[in-house]
Amino acid sequence: MSQHFETQAVRTQMERSQHKEHSAPIYMTSSYKFDDAEEMRALFTGEQEGNIYSRYANPNVDEFITKMAILEGTDDGWATATGMAAIFTTFAAFLKQGDHILSSRSVFGSTHQLLHNILPKWGITYSYADLDKTEEWEKLIQPNTKMIFVETPSNPGIDIIDLEWLGNFSKKHGAMLVVDNCFATPYLQQPIKYGTDLSIHSATKYIDGQGRALGGIILGRNELIREIEGFARHSGPALSPFNSWILSKSLETLAVRMDRHCESALKVATALEANPEVELVKYPFLPSHPQYEIAKKQMKAGGGIITFVPKGGLERAARFLDALKMFSISANLGDTRSIATHPATSTHSKLTEEQRNEVGIEQGTIRLSIGLEHVDDILADIEQALKASVLEPEETSK
Ligand SMILES: *Cc1c(COP(=O)(O)O)cnc(C)c1O
């Protein structure tokens, strides 16, 4: 019988060395020795398996990949230095001049930059589709659409798409389906179960979960990962052994951390929705979320990210951030420390106001990443900041 997620996350480890260490050592080596000329030759031709150079493979990187692939329910992966390197590597490995990407409109700010400013240099075009308007997707597919790329839940709009529907849609149109699974982690959602070809993570977020290390990973079936390898071995987005060691260790606590992130976030989202100073709250497991039923179907819990809009627009949002006493104002998410961000002036400031509105970012939208502090302290900080930031009537009319 296959073991549970938690057990696999703790017990999947590389082979022990002659020291019989209990916790995995770090292999800080850039290259590896060959026993003789024949072994070197065989490794380079691929006749024999083994380590050559850490741009290709390293024991710590391999351990991280093996663990993530098991947890995601697939057979292979490729680890990268950052989440963006994972996304760019995926685009570069599979797309060529003349190809088209159909992407969810709501994507991470730097993903938008890749689609809009970088890929067009190589003749690769894109269109955006809205996660909540699947009836329009059929019209947006083009004969040259090679890849469908989505974030679900999306950042920061917290929109959701039905992965089962999307898996069938992609298959029908012969397009490769790539999901940025960063917000959910493999603990809450496994897109590959629904026909997704590649699942991507910024491991910088919940996988590390403690705000220490950058990392990324691409997960999927072996034949696709070999194509990724063909690009990555020579272009060099490799994850370092040290960060792999950190991330692999972090996976041991992913389930317990996610349980607490989700439990606290649901309490905070519920409290925000009941607060008269709040105009709108988006959280996947709130029954008011437009795709609540889909979220319930494909996610184990709602995740740790909430977006909300306090009454009073941009001015109120700025005052709310300044009034927070415990929350950190930071662009990161998925940390042990609770974080508040204002997407319109930070992560999504490169978009026009119209583009932001289209992805559900209002001038006053605030994104909260609910940390692992006691939930009563988190709630108290939000409540006092909402109180302290109320605008006077004459300020509201400005
Ligand atoms: C942070 C993030 C990324 C980029 O990851 P980095 O590790 O910062 O490069 C990509 N997608 C989503 C959804 C993210 O939140």
TrEMBL record:
EC number: 2.5.1.-
GO aspect biological process, one term: homocysteine biosynthetic process
Biased composition (Polar residues): 1-11
Pfam families found in the cross-reference section: Cys_Met_Meta_PP
Keyword Transferase: yes
GO CC list: cytoplasm
Highest rank taxon of the organism: Bacteria
A GO molecular function held by the record: transaminase activity
InterPro entries xref list: Cys/Met-Metab_PyrdxlP-dep_enz, Cys_met_metab_PP, O-succ-hSer_sulfhydrylase, PyrdxlP-dep_Trfase, PyrdxlP-dep_Trfase_major, PyrdxlP-dep_Trfase_small
Positions bearing N6-(pyridoxal phosphate)lysine: K205
Region of interest (Disordered), ranges: 1-22
Annotated pathway: Amino-acid biosynthesis; L-methionine biosynthesis via de novo pathway; L-homocysteine from O-succinyl-L-homoserine: step 1/1
Keyword Amino-acid biosynthesis applies: yes
Catalysed reaction equations from the record: O-succinyl-L-homoserine + hydrogen sulfide = L-homocysteine + succinate
Biased composition (Basic and acidic residues): 13-22
Cofactor(s) annotated in UniProt: pyridoxal 5'-phosphate
Keywords for this protein: Amino-acid biosynthesis, Aminotransferase, Methionine biosynthesis, Pyridoxal phosphate, Transferase
Subunit and interaction comment: Homotetramer.
Function: Catalyzes the formation of L-homocysteine from O-succinyl-L-homoserine (OSHS) and hydrogen sulfide.
HAMAP family: MetZ
Family, similarity comment: Belongs to the trans-sulfuration enzymes family. MetZ subfamily.
Descriptive protein name: O-succinylhomoserine sulfhydrylase
Organism of provenance: Mucilaginibacter arboris
